[in-house]
Amino acid sequence: MYYHSNYSSPIGQITLAGTDDKLIGLWMKDQKYFGDTLPENSVENNHLALFDKTKKWLDKYFAGNNPEISELPLHPIGNEFRQTVWSVLRQIPYGETITYKQIAQKTAEILEKDSMSCQAVGGAVGHNPISVIIPCHRVVGTNGSLTGFSGGINKKIKLLELEGVDTAQFKVPIKGTAL
Q1: Catalytic amino acids?
Q2: 10, 37, 65, 93: most buried by Cβ count inside 10 Å?
C-alpha cells in the first residue's frame, strides 16, 4: 500500500509519499512532475513512522543543519539511468554545487560509457522524485546559471542559501530568456 502526507516548510507545502518503510517521493507544491511516481490509490496517513522520521529529518534540514541522507530509507522509482544520476546527486556535499556536465561525466564513468549527454542528465535530475533530500537543487549550469530546478528558481535559491551557498555568484535566468 502507498501513503502520502503533507509537511509545512519554509519553502511551502511538501508532499511525502511512501510505503510502510520506504520513501518514494517528496514534492513541493506546484513542482513540475508533482507526484509522477505516486500511485493514484495512495492513502493519506499522517501517523506513519516513516513520515515522522522524514519530517524530523526535514525539521533538522530547515533549521540549517546537515542531516545524513543515509538516515532515511529512500526508494525513488526510475530506470537504471535515472537511478545512477540520482545516486550521483546523493554524493553532492551539503553547501556545495556541481554542474550538469560534472554529473554527466560521473554518470558516464559509472555506466562505463565514453560520454553522457548533459541534456539527458538534466532530464533525470528534473524528474528526481525525492527533492530536497536527494539534492537536485545543488546542480547548476556549466555557465554558472541557476537553471533547471523543477521546484522553481526561487525555491532553489532559498535551499542553497539555507545551506550557506553564496548565490550571488550565479546567474539567475529572467523568465522567457535563455542563458
Answers
A1: 136
A2: 37
